[in-house]
Amino acid sequence: MKILLTLLLANTIQFSLVHLANAESTFDKIKSTGVFRIATEGAYSPFTYHDASGALTGFDVDIGREIAQRLNVRPIFIEGKWDGLIAGLDAGRSDAVINQIAITPERKKKYDFSIPYITSQAVLIIHKDNDSIKIFSDLRGKTSAHTLTNNFAQIARHNGAEIIGTNGFSQEIELVSTGRADATINDNLSYLDYKKHKPNAPVKIVASHPNAEQTAILLRKGESELKTAIDQAITDIKTDGTYQRIWVQYFGVNTAE
């Protein structure tokens, strides 16, 4: 009897230890390892891309680095195609996604978001010689180039467009420029940055979506400690002037939130 009780006690202790290990939050792991794993695309200028030297940079990348600094940990950026970023978060390969993720009701059902760190507007982009598309509803029966699961693709589908799958913004603009796609919908800030570097690109904006989007950091559901820490970091970044400095670096003198 004593042996049986001893075995039961040992099993109970072992189960409790396993349960505690499994219950360790993402925030606990970040603090214990000293590493904040951030999923990002690395191919979406000016938010997350590689500069002429090959270094990862961009507005979202700098925001991620500043958040990590305020958490007193080191950021590690895990790059991948858009469609795999959220899947990587689900699988535990990253702790957060910072890649211009729009807050939508559908995503909020499965994920948590930080407080927004940027507000922007979707714009309809076509070839400069295209006169057949003037408003979003003109996309019906036309082709629109997008990564398949992003919010811009949903807008295009809603307006009756056939989606041509891409690897990111640069390919989307290329398809429109060469006539292999009728249009693309994307962030107005990305478009302005693109035209700044390639003013002669044969593309133009013909319409803006009436609803501005709020962008935030995507987290797994229930990571309340991590969300609170990131929210505080974003608040501090905006309060101490860091946000304005980063904004000016990538977008100019005016802060548009």
TrEMBL record:
Question: Main subcellular localization, coarse class?
Answer: other
Identify the PROSITE patterns for this entry. SBP_BACTERIAL_3
* Keywords annotated in UniProt: Signal
**Which Pfam family, an example, fits this chain?**
SBP_bac_3
GO cellular component terms attached to this protein's record: outer membrane-bounded periplasmic space
Superkingdom to which the source organism belongs: Bacteria
Q: Which InterPro entries match?
A: SBP_3_CS, Solute-binding_3/MltF_N
> What are the residue boundaries of the Solute-binding protein family 3/N-terminal domain, all occurrences included?
35-254
> Where is it localised?
Cell envelope
- Stretch forming the signal peptide: 1-23
**Similarity comment: family membership:** Belongs to the bacterial solute-binding protein 3 family.
This one is known as Putative amino-acid ABC transporter-binding protein
Q: Which organism is it from?
A: Photorhabdus australis subsp. thailandensis
